[in-house]
Amino acid sequence: QVQLVESGGGLVQAGGSLRLSCTTSGTIFRIFAMGWYRQAPGKQRELVAVITSGGNTNYADSVKGRFTISRANAKNTVYLQMNTLIPEDTAVYYCNARSPVTTQNYWGQGTQVTVSS
To answer: Which of 16, 20, 45, 54 is the least buried, fewest Cβ under 10 Å from its Cβ?
Structure first.
């Protein structure tokens, strides 16, 4: 069973920073694209950022210039560095691993990020 273990959520004031981490198995990490999604109350889950096994990245327009996704291959870990946080970033953040060639798609349990104004 594939597990994605997330950490790093919490409460922060507007303008502050948080870093989320997601760790999985080496087999998954080496091949799959790793991403972060978020879901605010009453809203659909949306893509925040994704990074491929080759290091290519893509960001939602709402977080460009403020968030950075990266991967530490030696640790099988993907990070989401979130700077200049705003209240609209408040959501449950989910780590995702998606196969580039099959329908395999895995989710973490989610971590709460709350930004106070």
So the answer is: 54
User: Taking residues 112-117, what's their average pLDDT?
Assistant: 97
One-character DSSP codes across 34-102: EEEEEE-TTS--EEEEEE-TT--EEE-GGGTTTEEEEEEGGGTEEEEEE-S--GGG-EEEEEEEE-SSS
AA identity, residue 26: G
Q: Which two tokens stand for residue 60?
A: 């939602």
| Cα 6 to the center of its chain, rounded Å | 9
Q: Virtual CA dihedral for 70, 72, 73, 74, nearest 10 degrees?
A: 180
